[in-house]
């Protein structure tokens, strides 16, 4: 009976529908340790971009890829905006496989493999396997543009921050402090 079910056309179609969800491809996340972080200087060691060097702009851990500034440049089209700005063609870097790049040793300027070691104070650092020198992690806040702080029409001035602007503030004071004391009492009972 089971062989008749498998050999029939509707049985094969049913089997395909059941197995459809299990056959979807998911990228394996096989990189256990990420020794390259945003802001590092890396060199491409394999592929058509071999020999190119640049700063890491982004690390895509879900797909085991990184984006390097000035490497793997591709043309991409930008659609016209809703506000009437025209569309245009842009050249921007695309991602590279994580395994195709190597971290640059700052002392020699050559690509190196990375080991992890602990210092005397217990901090974990990256160490070059070629020279044994510590490779510091770049400061993520170093290259960010400064935050623009402009006072708008709806912003509160620094002098008015502590001023009470609610007209019925005095009427609600007993309720505000009564709820706080009730919450404190219920927490103490627990």
Spatial arrangement of strands, main beta sheet: 6-3-2-1-7-8
* Average predicted confidence as pLDDT: 83
Tell me the major beta sheet: 6 strands, antiparallel
Tertiary shape: extended
Secondary structure category = alpha+beta
What name does CATH use for the topology of the domain at 41-135? SH3 type barrels
Determine the N-to-C terminus distance.
Answer: 63 Å
CATH domain class of the domain at 41-135: Mainly Beta
Count the helices. How many?
3
Strand content: 25-35%
- Architecture of the domain at 41-135, CATH level 2? Roll
Unreliable segments of 5+ consecutive residues? none
Compact description:
This protein has 190 residues and is an alpha+beta fold. Helices cover 20% and strands 26% of the residues.
Sum up the structure in keywords.
190 residues; alpha+beta; SH3 type barrels; 6-stranded antiparallel sheet; 3-stranded antiparallel sheet
Overview of this structure, please?
The model has no long low-confidence stretch (mean pLDDT 83). The longest helix is centred in the C-terminal third of the chain and has 21 residues, at 169-189. The protein has a domain at 41-135: SH3 type barrels. 10% of the residues are buried. It is extended, with a radius of gyration of 29 Å. Strands 6-3-2-1-7-8 form a 6-stranded antiparallel β-sheet, with no helix packed on it. The chain has 3 helices and 11 strands, in the order ααβββββββββββα. It starts with a helix and ends with a helix. The chain is of the alpha+beta class. The protein has helices at residues 2-7, 9-19, 169-189, and strands spanning 41-44, 53-60, 65-68, 73-78, 88-93, 95-97, 101-104, 111-112, 114-118, 124-128, 134-135. A hairpin with an 8-residue loop joins strand 1 (41-44) and strand 2.
């Amino acid at each position: 009976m089971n062989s008749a079910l498998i050999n029939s056309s509707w049985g094969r179609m049913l089997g395909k529908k059941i197995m459809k969800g299990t056959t979807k491809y998911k990228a394996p996340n096989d990189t256990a340790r990420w020794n390259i972080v945003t802001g590092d200087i890396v060199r491409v060691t394999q592929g058509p971009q071999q020999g190119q060097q640049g700063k890491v702009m982004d690390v895509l851990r879900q797909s085991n890829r990184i984006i390097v500034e000035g490497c793997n440049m591709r043309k991409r089209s930008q659609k016209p905006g809703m506000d009437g700005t025209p569309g245009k063609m842009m050249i921007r870097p695309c991602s590279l496989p994580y395994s195709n790049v190597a971290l640059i040793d700052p002392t020699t300027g050559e690509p190196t493999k990375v080991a992890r070691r602990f210092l005397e104070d217990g901090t974990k650092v990256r160490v070059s396997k070629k020279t044994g020198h510590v490779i510091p992690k770049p400061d993520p806040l170093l290259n960010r543009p400064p935050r623009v702080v402009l006072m708008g029409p709806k912003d509160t001035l620094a002098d008015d921050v502590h001023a009470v602007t609610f007209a019925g503030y005095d009427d609600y004071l007993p309720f505000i402090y009564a709820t706080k004391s009730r919450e404190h009492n219920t927490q103490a009972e627990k």
